[in-house]
Amino acid sequence: MKLAPVAMTGPNVESTVVVVHDDVTGRSSSVRLVPATDDGKIEIYASLAGMRASFGTENLLVIDYTHPNAVNDNAIFYAENHLPFVMGTTGGDRARLMDDVSSRKAFAVIAPNMGKQIVAMQAGLEYAASKFPGSFAGYGLEVTESHQSTKADTSGTARAVISSLLKLTDDDFDVAEGGGDINMLRDDESSLAFGVSREALGGHAFHTYRLTSSDGSVVFELKHNVEGRTVYAEGTADAVKFLANMVSTGMEGRVFSMIDVLEAGALDKYTNPVGDMTATTRRAATASSGAGLSSASKFDDDVNISPRITTNTVAGCDGKSTLTPLRSRRPIGISPPIISNQNDPRRGGGPLFSLVPSSPRFVSVSYMSLSLAIHLAGYELSRAAVMALFTSDGLGFGHGQGAGEGGGGGLSALPLAVGCVSPFSICLLWFYGNTLERGGPASALRAHTLICAACQIASGCALRVLDERLLRSSPNDDDRFAVHDVADAQFRSRSLLFLLFVFQNAYVQLLYNQHWAFIGSVLTPEEGARAFAPIAGLGSIGSTLAAGLVSSLVRRLGLIGLLHLAGASFVLSALLADIAFGTARGGGFEPRREDGSDDRKYGSVGPPGDISMGGRVNNANAPTSPSSMKSKGRSASRAPAQSCVQCREGGNIFHQARVLFRRVPVLGALFLEVVLSQCLSSLVNFIYLYKLKSMIADDDMRAGWSGTYYAWINGVSGILQFFVIPLLLKHFEAHRIWLFMPTLMLFCTSYTFVTFRSSGLFGASASFFAIKTMEYSLRGAANEMLYVSLDYESRYLGKKVISLIAGKFGKSAMAVALSLLMVVYGEEEDIMRYLVAISILVAASWLLTSMSLHSLIEASRK
Ligand SMILES: NC(=O)C1=CN([C@@H]2O[C@H](COP(=O)(O)OP(=O)(O)OC[C@H]3O[C@@H](n4cnc5c(N)ncnc54)[C@H](O)[C@@H]3O)[C@@H](O)[C@H]2O)C=CC1
Ligand SMILES: O=C(O)C1=N[C@H](C(=O)O)C[C@H](O)C1
């Protein structure tokens, strides 16, 4: 759905162009405001003709939030021009309004209040009134309502509610023009005294109805207090969908109420009324107060909707009416969700989708989820093979065969490779963005997954040739040709492995984001909140199984065979993703580019997690999560529309971060905490890999060991994330996580130090195991719990800064430090012991930072 480029506005308003910005999707639309004068109407007629030619006669719908003075004329205009309309505007001559619309057999939803909850309350009162008329006989009624000082009329909602209450009581309450007995508050002082918050003085609707028995011994009070406009925008979205469906049935035009809309929803007559509205649409309407005209495209819905159905758009902007062409039903570019906050009570139960399992959306999401799981499985295979080859003595950076030093080392180039991952990811993102722009999401994902597969397979073939060359040449000081040949082959294989390492780590994250972007685009936020955890669980199972199989696969296929198998998994993943896109295309809900929209986001959504040094995708710095997506919606509604604009306009990200940290010190502390934890993560990973290489010289065995190790990490973090942490968080205060993580690491690194020489692999791998498991499970939940307590702007920018800078900075800083150390000292055992000692210091600094973060959280809670 799209906003139309033209909108009607008040006759006294200058014709102008406004830009309507959607905070959620980041998209903007320009809307030309045309005053509702005779001249203006000529322009509107011309625009209508153009829109109908472009989008189809039935694909236009009006949303009217204008002025009480305009109600009657506007309604006749819409009815005579065969424009179905949703009218929220109150006032005017209501009886005439109903007559005018009904007699013209026009389609409309007209309601003085679009807030679904308020409408449900009204319906309840009506029911009580019809069931128990007069049950409050003798009770006196008092009504106070407060609105922004600019509101021209008496609350239409109050009038409607009073008409129901007057069926219950015999009070002679007067609701005449001008308000009658209603106590109308329209000045800021009275509104504040009535409980309205200062920020909502410009837009609120507070209502209190009090019924008091004649002797004053019994008092009933009914309140509905709304700040902002989101609740109306949401209801309007439902009304639009409902009306589009009614039009499509071919029935005669009728005037519906919001109770009709609610009842239709309750009876599930059509699918997913809110879900099918785009976030853009809802936000645009949220920001609005005016009349909107919108257009829509045809779509075949998944269930219960006739193929003829058309859907229409919501439109609206500051006090105007808009014409809106619609292209896609779904927002694209939703940030990839990460599982966290599994204990979120808002998750609730209920079916996964409001769709039947055979519906195209269910099928397409299932295929994409499988594609994601196979992609992660392929990554596990590739990681095990690449790490073992990277540190191998023949093809890799070890010192065995080539230098004749008898096996060992192999990690000196690793920090540099890790340091190259972030810059390479940025280039890749740019490249991906271009492909996306040229071919759209489906072909971009296909092309890049196949590139990824081809690189694994081609590298495997090249490494096999180089390995044979190395085996053929016997390094012998006297045979200068053979020495040169070995050196040349090693140079090539090392360069290839270096590139493969960087490439593989950058690519896995990028493609993983694309899978989630598709899933996030196809599912509504409500469905997503239920489906993300099982989908992430499927991914977890894929990677755990693959990692667990590495050991037996490597025995059968060898390391290069493992690379080929990884390549084959990526091909399969591409195929499944293609089927997912194909199904979406067939169902008419394929995420695709939209004119003027910020669709590059589809491919450039922020990283859902990060890739550790040889690690899997983790959610340490996840920008969003299913639960946060929900809460994002919630707080976005609380936030002033311009707050996000400030986020974008406030200079470069470093400047924004400085300003933000000064304003929200808890985010500054979180930033430091993330930097230190990422430094430690890289360091203990390096120590673990060093120990692994020095204890297991055989490449195949090393790959097998590391596969099993990662299978345990994946498995344990999955169990923690899905089962243990939600349980624990019921009994322990969440902010203790911040202290728990570094304390555990202080113990683990001290243990590694004490046992470094004696305990073999166990001591070194324990630290890495602990930090990785926490990163995959606890970290995301901890971050989200902190973000959720912040205001919208802090959360939006905080996530951006922390995920973009803190995580990468921590890793890159450690990579640079380790690279320098390797150049100066090499891989000496003593140096490694120093590194373990340093890891204790880093863990201690992390603990100190966490303590300050913890006390800031405590202080803000108080
Ligand atoms: N049903 C519901 O749930 C809700 C209804 N409303 C109603 O919506 C109406 C507007 O409320 P606000 O946005 O607060 O008022 P507002 O005064 O901020 O905006 C009204 C806009 O309508 C424009 N306008 C005036 N005459 C027009 C015309 N002939 N054609 C097109 N546009 C015209 C004005 O230029 C102004 O920008 C009120 O009647 C209010 O009671 C508001 C919120 C919720
Ligand atoms: O003007 C408003 O703001 C509102 N108007 C409607 C009304 O008059 O009832 C609905 C809600 O009160 C907000």
Q: Could you explain how this protein is built, in words?
A:
This protein is of the alpha/beta class and 862 residues long. The chain has two domains: 116-229, Dihydrodipicolinate Reductase, domain 2, CATH 3.30.360; 363-398 and 408-861, MFS general substrate transporter like domains (Growth Hormone, Chain: A, Up-down Bundle). Helices cover 60% and strands 8% of the residues. The chain contains 24 helices and 15 strands. The protein has helices spanning 38-55, 71-80, 94-103, 116-131, 156-168, 188-193, 230-248, 258-266, 279-286, 360-390, 414-472, 480-522, 525-587, 601-604, 626-638, 642-649, 653-663, 665-695, 699-731, 737-755, 761-776, 778-787, 792-825, 829-861; strands spanning 2-3, 6-9, 16-21, 28-35, 60-64, 85-87, 108-110, 140-147, 183-185, 204-212, 219-227, 255-256, 291-295, 610-611, 617-618. The protein has a six-stranded mixed sheet with strand order 1-13-5-6-7-12, sandwiched between helices. A four-stranded mixed sheet has the order 9-8-10-11. The structure holds 1,4-dihydronicotinamide adenine dinucleotide and ligand LZUJQKHR. 1,4-dihydronicotinamide adenine dinucleotide binds at residues 8-11, 13, 36, 65-68, 70, 74, 88-91, 111-115, 150-151, 156, 232, 289-291, 319, 321.
**CATH superfamily of the largest domain, called what?**
MFS general substrate transporter like domains
Helix percent band = 55-70%
The ligands found in this model are: 1,4-dihydronicotinamide adenine dinucleotide, the ligand O=C(O)C1=N[C@H](C(=O)O)C[C@H](O)C1
Read across the widest sheet, the strand sequence of neighbours is 1-13-5-6-7-12
Low-confidence stretches: 266-355, 401-407, 594-650
How many DSSP H or I helices?
Answer: 24
What's the CATH first level of the largest domain?
Mainly Alpha
Report the CATH architecture of the largest domain: Up-down Bundle
**Secondary structural class:** alpha/beta
CATH topology grouping of the largest domain = Growth Hormone, Chain: A
What is the total domain count? 2
Family: Belongs to the DapB family.
InterPro entries: ADP_ATP_car_bac_type, DapB_C, DapB_N, DHDPR_bac, MFS_trans_sf, NAD(P)-bd_dom_sf
Domain Dihydrodipicolinate reductase C-terminal: 120-262
Pathway: Amino-acid biosynthesis; L-lysine biosynthesis via DAP pathway; (S)-tetrahydrodipicolinate from L-aspartate: step 4/4
